[in-house]
Amino acid sequence: MTQTLPALFISHGPPTLPLERLAARDFLTGLAASLPARPSAILAVSAHWETRNHALTGAVRQAALYDFYGFPPELYDMTYAPQGDPALVQRVTGLLSEAGIPAGVDGDRNLDHGVWTPLSLIYPDADIPVVQLSLRAGSDARHHARLGAALAPLRDEGVLILCSGNVTHNLGEWQRLMRAGITQTPEWVTSFQEWVADRVGAGDEAALCGFADHPEGRHNHPTDEHFLPFFVAMGAGGAETGRRLHDSVCYTVLAMDAYAFG
């Protein structure tokens, strides 16, 4: 009998996550052992792939996309090449069609760093098939929660829904703080970080979907894309079932929290 898996939201932080000594890195290396079962496949959603309509990676063999520049050479030497999963692609497109959400297939797209860097820590052997699903550009948190709800049946089918972004993400502020020599995490980061945890604990989907109305919502997310995967996980597992698995901050402004739903 297949065990039901939670839908996960993880904060992936910098591309160098696999190379750095970070609390979030240590958490991710132990994450697989904490899950109720080994997934048969992974459906990944990352902040780093947005399309006009949702799209799925269709390659039979996936590869790492080095969608960054200026980082240490050893990062570009890393590889992550799991199998794709055509059957999962077909299943997802069917579920989304039933929900009235169109989705296509991109046979050339590889896995961006929001997927492969954390997966290199969670499942380093790359021996579980992976399909990536894009965010829909211009669509809000509520749409992506509805997207997650459409994907919920996958949790009973051995598929791990792994959504990757950041609880807080303002790199412009990080650069400003670096220039000013400030290394302490500002209150506007921690207040939003704890507000998210509080609202998850209360199962308050409406408040979370309206995160931009929080006094520090736009300070932490000048654009939505790094928080939208959170709502896919929330929709797939149900807001009332959420729990925080990890909390830490790196690079002053990146809250690296992780959540499970369901």
Largest sheet: 6 strands, mixed
As a percent range, the share of helical residues equals 25-40%
Cα Rg? 17 Å
Beta content comes to: 15-25%
Name the shape in a single word. Answer: globular
Name the strands of the widest sheet in spatial order.
Answer: 5-2-6-1-10-7
Strand tally, please?
Answer: 10
How would you describe this structure in keywords?
two-stranded parallel ribbon, 10 strands, 11 helices, 262 residues, alpha/beta, single chain
Describe the model.
By secondary structure, the chain is an alpha/beta fold. The protein has eleven helices and ten strands. The chain has helices spanning 23-29, 31-34, 73-77, 86-98, 113-122, 141-151, 171-179, 187-201, 205-209, 217-220, 228-237; strands spanning 7-11, 41-51, 54-57, 103-106, 130-136, 159-165, 243-246, 249-250, 254-255, 258-261. Strands 5-2-6-1-10-7 form a six-stranded mixed β-sheet, sandwiched between helices. A two-stranded parallel ribbon has the order 3-4. A two-stranded antiparallel ribbon has the order 8-9. α6 (141-151) packs parallel to α11 (228-237). The longest helix has 15 residues, at 187-201. The protein is globular, with a radius of gyration of 17 Å. The two termini are 18 Å apart. The relative contact order is 0.23.
